[in-house]
Design goal:
- The chain has helices spanning 7-27, 43-59, 74-86, 105-111, 123-131, 139-150, 170-179, 194-198, 244-247, 261-280, and strands spanning 3-4, 33-39, 62-68, 92-95, 159-163, 183-187, 203-206, 224-227, 231-232, 238-239, 253-254.
- With 284 residues, the protein is of the alpha/beta class.
- It is globular.
- Bound molecules: guanine.
Amino acid sequence: MARIIDGKLVSSAVKEGVAVKVNELKKQGINPCLAVIIVGNNPASRTYVNNKKKACEATGIISKEIALDESASTEELLSVVEELNKDSSVHGILCQLPVPKQIDKNRILAAISPDKDVDAFHAINVGRLLQGVQSFQPCTPAGVIRMLEYYNISVEGKNCVVIGRSDIVGKPMAVLLMQKDGTVTVAHSKTKNLKEVTSKADILVSTVGKANFVTADMVKDGAVVIDVGINRNAEGKLCGDVIFDEVEKKASYITPVPGGVGPMTVSMLLENTVTAAKIQNGIE
Ligand code: GUN
């Protein structure tokens, strides 16, 4: 039976550290501030943004929300980003994704100042990540790494399989696992014999976004299974990609959904906001 990796526990520990750092900055007259842009009425995005704001408040970070109408144009959004780039009281900027179809997402992400890009989505920060000189951690993958570290799970020399190759999670996840000296394979929708690939994983990270995608026969005995998926099952209940009940019998460690990777993403965002405040004040 697998040991549960408790994302809420690790996330609380990270938030405690953030609160201490925020306090120290405040003593120096620096008030870390995160600006979150949300466009339209996507209910999942609204929930994520509310969670981010709540987490900011809990750690003493000022949060500023800029909500634009569903019909907003790329130009409107660009002018909001420009204002926030110039505003020295704002240290971190993120635009909640997805944005409505009429908006050119890549132009928006490219317009956010790399020094305020707490999502680490800007091409400069992606490049820095590949070079291993990043200031900002890509939040979800960095959250996964932090959980592994908390439970003393070594990556060095391990076969790591990441299912999914998205810009936000799959690709940066693979890079961070490589930085930790893992032997990394990225599987995706065109991978042949997926089961054969995943069965070799000592550390299996699923980022697919489909309920019941990872079955026990895809998992090696004793593997560490990290479930990044956030889905709804047929009954409308929140679930990950992994069939938890059957995989937990085979794995050595497993993350639940909810209460696994999800809480970590927000905590890493807070850490990045503190880093941004430091960078902009010449402290880091
Ligand atoms: N939408 C889903 N995940 C994320 C994230 O990590 N950052 C932003 N900005 N949007 C998202």
